[in-house]
Amino acid sequence: HHGIRQVLGRLGVQEQNPAFSTGLQWGGATNANTRAIHSPTDGQRIASVALVTAEDYEQVILKAQEAFKTWRQVPAPKRGEIVRQIGNKLREYKEDLGKLVSYEMGKILQEGLGEVQEMIDICDFAVGLSRQLHGLTMHSERPAHRMYEQYHPLGLVGIISAFNFPVAVWSWNAMLAAVCGDVSIWKPSEKTPLVAVAVQHIIKDVLTENELPEGIFNVIIGDAEIGAKMAADTRVPLVSATGSTRMGKKVGEVVGARLGKALLELGGNNAIILTEHADLDIAIRAVLFGAVGTAGQRCTTTRRLIIHDSIYEDVKQRLLNAYPKLPIGHPLQEGNLVGPLIDTDAVQSFTKALQEVQAEGGKLLTGGEVLSGSGYETGTYVQPALVEAKNEYHTVQEETFAPILYLIKYSGSVEEAIDLQNGVRQGLSSSIFTLNMREAEAFLAATGSDCGIANVNIGTSGAEIGGAFGGEKETGGGRESGSDAWKIYMRRQTNTINYSTQLPLAQGIKFDI
Ligand code: NAD
Description:
Blueprint: H1 4-10, E1 16-17, E2 20-21, E3 26-27, E4 34-38, E5 45-50, H2 54-71, H3 76-92, H4 94-105, H5 109-129, E6 137-138, E7 145-153, E8 156-160, H6 168-179, E9 183-187, H7 194-209, E10 217-220, H8 224-232, E11 238-242, H9 245-257, E12 261-265, E13 270-274, H10 280-292, E14 302-308, H11 312-322, H12 344-359, E15 363-366, E16 385-388, H13 394-397, E17 404-410, H14 414-422, E18 426-427, E19 429-433, H15 437-444, E20 453-456, E21 468-469, E22 472-473, E23 480-481, E24 490-498
Parallel strand pairs: 1-5, 8-9, 8-11, 9-10, 11-12, 13-14, 13-19, 14-17, 16-17, 19-20
Antiparallel strand pairs: 2-3, 2-10, 4-5, 6-7, 7-24, 15-16, 18-22, 21-23
Helix pairs in contact: 1-4, 3-5, 3-7, 4-5, 4-7, 5-6
């Protein structure tokens, strides 16, 4: 089985895994409530995990609170040094962890390795950041006064992650939070908890070697309920949640009700615009990878293709040539580009969306079958679908987390295409392919794309860690990873110091006593 047993062994994943870890200690192994995790690739049982109880959760919070007292006093560059070591450990385990990501989640090995590389990159980024947690200084309007701002550690950061980037999203949050002086509590997706167990084993060595207290990096294994408990917990000042808009609306409401901070990274409905001035050779590559890569299970997956009618037939033909040739199969098998969907529920959503869009008037051009036969026994492999549709169709307005690409025609100017692209409730990633400078700039202007990510001659899928990642509207508005995304993990304080012998008031206010 592709050496998975050995990989699990090296990563410390056992037959039965405990429900939580505080970095150094594991706990909750005796919980009666356990769950078996099966691979979507071949249906094999990989291992099982225990699920945290309310008491376990309480223990973890107490450990985290205790650790925060120490961690926030460690100088930021020293915290960066710990993150540097974590990055190095991840380099050592890259092959194994990448393989487990691929096996547990179903993305192809190259993408599993890519995901671990992203973790390593964010570690490097965070190390640099640990010396750059800058505030500004301002000129005071009062004589002999100094005014500046500083950023202090915030406290406990809850990280709720989705199945599709089962480890990278944790690292975006946890590594930044760590250099910022926060401690984190990670609730991985209940569909992919084993990679979280593995990651926790990897960082344990670093914590031990540096004699750090437990409670800096915590993991709790459980479903939505425990996530909801954390969202409601006033001891957790920031909850960073990645997943569906449905989930984000709930978490946002609960965190908002207690005036906590929520960082929401939710669903997308990403479009690529192909204008009459597009370089189709590069565009088709971007469309293909964007639409079928990770079997359509990226938040940045290309779901809509908005095509100028002058090139519509050409584009359609090129895609119709490519789609039937897609190598679909076991993600650890070299040469395959498309792996399985996460489970048969996801397959049902795929099939249902295709039925619904056809009922609305859409035309299925190719694909849409659930694959069967040798290698496809799990019922989780599907043939990516191409559908001619209209933007306003209910089905097109929704994010179906599966490989369906909707072809949408426009006939007027680029503004018409931009209106279509913006005409959905989500606002994550967007692209235009054009060699025309006016069209490209129109797309990037204030009147252009309304998404958090807007690309020119690059697809929607994937992003570099150096930029802030996230989206607008129902995507939730949060920003993670690069640029100044770190600021949400800290509390900002403005300080004014008077070193004069007077007490002048601001705005020239005078009073006598
Ligand atoms: P999901 O919403 O089903 O689950 C995500 C996480 O939220 C899980 O850990 C789950 O246990 C937890 N959760 C669910 N309900 C909750 C609640 N009421 N309170 C607290 N926690 C709760 O999503 P999924 O199927 O794992 O992931 C796919 C979705 O994630 C897609 O919509 C995709 O676009 C989105 N996603 C977004 C980004 C981004 O950065 N914008 C990245 C990856 C995935």
